[in-house]
Design goal:
Blueprint: H1 2-20, H2 25-31, H3 36-39, H4 58-70, H5 78-82, H6 87-99
Length: about 100
């Protein structure tokens, strides 16, 4: 029984990592042009009010961008920027910023 539970858990984790890592960094770089004003051209913000995105974990970036887009997290500047993003856009942006 323990072995079955371990296999199920590993399968779930592998499935999650596959969907999280599916982004296209090149497409994300193009989409990130609108993010550069606050988060910097290379994902390093010049203003301490806005976080650095370069090198962040893909799962974290996806979770936060979806939270802004879906209204679970709210910010007067970030929420409207995230609202039009598709899941693919978010995956691509996350892949791009993670690659920096």
């Amino acid at each position: 029984m323990k072995k079955i539970a371990s296999v199920v858990m590993m399968s779930a984790l592998l499935g999650l990592s596959g969907s999280v890592l599916a982004g296209d960094a090149a497409a994300g770089k193009t989409k990130a042009a609108t993010c550069a004003g606050c988060h910097g051209v290379a994902g390093i913000s010049a203003n301490t009010l806005w976080p650095n995105l370069a090198g962040q974990q893909v799962g974290y970036l996806v979770k936060q961008m979806k939270a802004f887009r879906d209204g679970a997290r709210s910010d007067p500047m970030m929420s409207p920027m995230a609202k039009p993003l598709s899941d693919a856009d978010i995956d691509n942006l996350a892949a791009y910023y993670n690659s920096l």
